[in-house]
């Protein structure tokens, strides 16, 4: 595991009125690692992701990525820098097919101009083929062949989550933020999803920040875990250490 | 055997391949595989190139003449290439079903003395790696889908592309070797091992030669002259002899354009793209297709349902006239033409049968009612009868289709019915013997005939299949009956997925254990606003039991008095191949089922109303659990 730091969160504090959602959080995501974020409900896990991809503007702190403070750049450009995410509640175009959802996610990578698009030949044609090829790679990786042309609104929940993961991936992210990708899934679906996350991480070297409540999964697939409680980071370390950490057991894991 | 014009000397499959490569080279498509959502094409030159590279690769790793390779995977071009490669250099291939558990896989690899295993992906490779130490003869495991295997560093495994690279390098040093070995191949060399699915005992490895396979394709062509370059869908597993005949041998001999679906679960979409001329489905697949059609029709708008029903009536009338050999009147012909155009053609398009010339069914018997249904909607479905050991035996002829028979024996296939009623065969398709099992081989070969173990009779040139010899059951009153006969008819109901019928000397009457079809019964229940939680719950609902009772009563009405079902239980779970209740081709394993559910049987014959059951279930991850519940017995008058 290389120790190069991919994303650095420094002294992040976020408040909604008097409610402190995050308090002076320091956290580092290393290149190529799967970092688990756990903690009880309302601990600030999703808030942390929302800060990273620009949904929330924290009052204090910095998030450094590629020598830039992502808090200072507009939210819609963050994905172009290589940070993609999935949502706790699936946010897809329900009226479009899985394939179209993925294609739409690559809009910011389109290089050709309006004129070329109008006639759809030459550059625009070549580029569209390239986009489709990239998407088909992801479809294959996530085993979505059978739902390629299905309307997303007609898909069961587990598969929608998969489409959403696919959409994050086709943006060619360097960092992937996953917000409870396995919530509401059965064991088999969870196993599939865990395997997909590992495959992505192994194959593409993508750094992953993963919020998840299923401790079995988190302990199995993450390299390191950070624990949040009431907006404070109370622990950080490899899964084994976290499992035995008294503060974590007290706040979240509970005694067996 | 007879050889076709211009094909003298082409007496092995690899020789045929070589001929195709010379004849067609880069100008003719041999295979299409859907990948990346589009159909990727391989010409005969491409195919021959891959076969050659793989063969050289195997040689460079120490493959010797007479070696065996085991292949485990889905239907992919790579399966075909690997098998052809081994056959080209004097080897044989052993096909294994992709859902076999590791202990089954080890049996096949070990028993067949395989020196190489071709495994599709990580899941299959893991099965072999678990047991690698127990297989000293195994030299390498080769995979063709690298997904998830990127960072495996075991020396025992290798990507097929790497193997081909090795092969190309080795070819430079030995440019003549491949063709020399290919030319040395003889038609009586073993080409494949097909392990009998073994409804009884351990699987036996039937050895089949090139001659056996070529005979079978030629036999098929007697009744269905396939034309070169017709579309064929490779869907049933090549671990089954039938796919070896149609896909691997027929593909090279006719030749056909073989199509591989993107994934097993995308077949329904892919088949519409292809519209194959020739389709081979197992009996179960036809059954599920029929019930899908029935359910989808019921689900559609009242106008469509009405049209479909009228169209079906007209079509049945026409069929009836045809069967009786009557002239079909002009009004009927016109009506049929109209309905075929407006109803059946769109229906056939939906299921990918627009260009279909023939659909084969085999493996287990299929109910005559269902065959009539398919013919009514314009699908030329035919019973094909064969066994792993004797390849193909009989088939329906066009315009001579009698639903209750398994067709007319092929020319060159000598058939005798023994005094005990067993079908005996002598033809070029009869296998060489079971591998390392001379006792069993001797048991099935007597007086120059192969003993099929099937009970049957000849009726005006048609062969009629009754049942397996050892499954004809004598009832307590001394009358004989065939449980399978009733089972097939029960399974025609869209609500019944599986069923096993019991009877015998120790049983005062005939009884049955049913598996409901979860999807269809679930839909039926939803329509009636019934609530249910699980399969177990649904299976015991009073309304569902009444529904099943209706089905059983209907079937009883066509059975002879002594063979009627007097009691049945709707089982709390489905029969499962992982629990050894079904074979991988989904045939019932009678003895294990009877043993396993002996308490239910005792309950039915003890006239109890409910029976407590406790059954062991194996989960996918290998853990074992217990299910406790209660099933209700249904009695009929």
The value of Rg of chain B in angstroms is: 25 Å
Rg of chain A, Cα atoms, Å: 19 Å
The level of helicity of chain B is: 25-40%
pLDDT average of chain A, as an integer? 90
Distance between the amino and carboxyl termini of chain A: 31 Å
Strands of chain B, total number: 29
What is the topology, as strand order, of the major beta sheet of chain A? 6-7-8-3-9-10
Task: Describe this structure as you would to a colleague.
The complex is a heterodimer of chains A (256) and B (637). With 256 residues, chain A is α/β, with parallel strands linked by helices. Chain A contains ten helices and ten strands. In chain A, the strands form two sheets. Chain A has a six-stranded mixed sheet, sandwiched between helices. In chain A, strands 2-1-4-5 form a four-stranded antiparallel sheet, covered by helices on one side. In chain A, α3 runs parallel beside α6. The longest helix of chain A is centred in the middle third of the chain and has 19 residues, at 123-141. The mean pLDDT of chain A is 90. In chain B, the strands form six sheets. In chain B, strands 7-6-5-3-4-8-9-19 form an eight-stranded mixed sheet, sandwiched between helices. Chain B has a five-stranded mixed sheet with strand order 12-13-14-15-16. Chain B is an alpha/beta fold. Chain B is 39% helix and 25% strand. The chains are: A alpha/beta (256), B alpha/beta (637). The interface between A and B is medium-sized, with 18 and 13 residues.
């Amino acid at each position: 595991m290389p120790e190069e730091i991919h994303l650095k969160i420094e002294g992040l504090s976020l408040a909604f009125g008097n409610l402190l959602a995050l308090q002076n959080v320091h956290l580092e995501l290393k290149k190529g690692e799967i970092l688990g974020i756990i903690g009880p409900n309302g601990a600030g896990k999703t808030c942390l992701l929302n800060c990273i991809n620009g949904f929330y503007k924290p009052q204090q702190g910095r998030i450094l990525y590629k020598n830039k403070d992502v808090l200072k750049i507009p939210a819609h450009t963050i994905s172009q820098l290589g940070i993609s995410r999935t949502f706790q509640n699936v946010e897809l175009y329900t009226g479009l097919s899985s394939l179209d959802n993925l294609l739409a996610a690559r809009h910011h990578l389109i290089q050709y101009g309006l004129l070329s698009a109008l006639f759809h030949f030459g550059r625009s044609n070549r580029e569209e083929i390239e986009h489709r090829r990239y998407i088909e790679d992801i479809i294959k990786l996530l085993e979505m062949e059978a739902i390629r042309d299905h309307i997303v609104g007609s898909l069961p929940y587990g598969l929608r989550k998969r489409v959403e993961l696919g959409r994050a991936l086709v943006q060619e992210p360097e960092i992937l933020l996953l917000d409870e990708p396995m919530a509401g899934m059965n064991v088999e679906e969870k196993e599939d999803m865990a395997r997909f996350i590992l495959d992505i991480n192994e194959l593409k070297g993508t750094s992953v920040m993963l919020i998840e409540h299923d401790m079995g999964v988190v302990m199995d697939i993450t390299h390191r875990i950070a624990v949040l409680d009431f907006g404070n980071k109370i622990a950080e370390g490899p899964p084994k250490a976290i499992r035995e950490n008294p503060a974590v057991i007290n706040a979240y894991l509970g005694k067996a | 055997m007879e050889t076709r014009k211009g094909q003298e000397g082409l007496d092995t499959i690899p020789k045929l391949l070589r001929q195709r490569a010379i004849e067609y080279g880069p100008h003719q498509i041999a295979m299409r595989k859907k990948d990346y959502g589009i159909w990727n094409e391989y010409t005969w030159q491409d195919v021959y190139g891959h076969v050659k590279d793989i063969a050289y690769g195997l040689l460079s790793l120490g493959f010797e003449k007479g070696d065996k390779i085991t292949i485990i995977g889905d239907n992919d071009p790579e399966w075909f290439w690997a098998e052809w490669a081994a056959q080209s250099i004097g080897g044989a291939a052993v096909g294994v079903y992709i859902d076999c558990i590791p202990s089954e896989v080890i049996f096949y690899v070990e028993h067949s003395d395989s020196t190489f295993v071709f495994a599709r992906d990580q899941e299959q490779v893991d099965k072999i790696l678990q047991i690698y130490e127990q297989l000293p003869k195994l030299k390498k495991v080769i995979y063709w889908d690298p997904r998830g295997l990127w960072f495996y560093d075991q020396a025992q495994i290798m990507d097929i592309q790497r193997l081909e690279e090795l092969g190309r390098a080795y070819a430079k040093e030995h440019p003549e070797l491949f063709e020399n070995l290919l030319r040395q191949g003889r038609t009586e060399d073993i080409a494949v091992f097909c392990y009998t699915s073994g409804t009884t005992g351990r699987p036996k490895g039937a050895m089949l030669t090139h001659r056996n396979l070529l005979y079978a394709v030629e036999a098929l062509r007697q009744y269905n002259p396939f034309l070169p370059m017709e579309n064929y869908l490779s869907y049933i597993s090549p671990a089954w002899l039938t796919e070896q005949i149609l896909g691997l041998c027929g593909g090279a001999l006719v030749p056909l354009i073989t199509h591989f679906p993107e994934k097993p679960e995308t077949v329904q979409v892919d088949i519409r793209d292809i519209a194959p001329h020739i389709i081979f489905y197992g009996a179960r697949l036809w059954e599920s297709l029929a019930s899908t059609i029935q359910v989808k029709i019921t689900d559609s708008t009242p106008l469509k349902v009405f049209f479909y029903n009228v169209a079906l009536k007209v079509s049945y009338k026409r069929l009836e006239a045809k069967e009786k050999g009557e002239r079909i009147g002009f009004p009927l012909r016109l009506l049929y033409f109209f309905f075929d155009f407006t109803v059946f053609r769109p229906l056939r398009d939906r299921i990918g049968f627009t260009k279909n010339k023939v659909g084969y069914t085999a493996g287990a018997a299929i109910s005559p009612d269902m065959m009539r249904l398919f013919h009514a909607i314009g699908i030329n479905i035919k019973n094909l009868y064969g066994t792993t050991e004797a390849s193909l035996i009989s088939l329906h002829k066009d315009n001579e289709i009698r639903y209750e028979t398994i067709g007319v024996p092929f020319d060159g296939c000598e058939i005798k019915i023994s005094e005990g009623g067993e079908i005996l065969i002598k033809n070029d398709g009869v296998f060489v013997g079971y591998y390392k099992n001379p006792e069993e081989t001797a048991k099935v070969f007597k007086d120059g005939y192969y003993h099929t173990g099937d009970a049957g009779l000849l009726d005006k040139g048609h062969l009629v299949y009754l049942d397996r010899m050892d499954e004809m059951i004598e009832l307590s009153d001394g009358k004989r009956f065939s449980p399978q006969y009733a089972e097939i008819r029960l399974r025609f109901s869209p609500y019944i997925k599986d069923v096993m019928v019991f009877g015998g000397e120790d049983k005062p009457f005939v009884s049955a254990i049913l598996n409901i079809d979860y999807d269809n019964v679930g839909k039926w229940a939803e329509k009636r606003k019934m609530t249910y939680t699980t399969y177990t719950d649904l299976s015991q609902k009073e309304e569902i039991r009444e529904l099943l009772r209706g089905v059983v009563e209907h079937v009883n009405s066509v059975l002879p008095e002594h063979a009627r079902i007097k009691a049945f239980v709707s089982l709390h779970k489905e029969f499962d191949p992982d629990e050894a209740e079904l074979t991988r081709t989904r045939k019932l394993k009678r003895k294990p089922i009877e043993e396993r559910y002996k308490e239910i049987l005792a309950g039915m014959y003890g006239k109890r109303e409910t029976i407590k059951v406790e059954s062991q279930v194996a989960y996918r991850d290998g853990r074992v659990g217990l299910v406790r519940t209660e099933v209700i017995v249904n009695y009929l008058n």
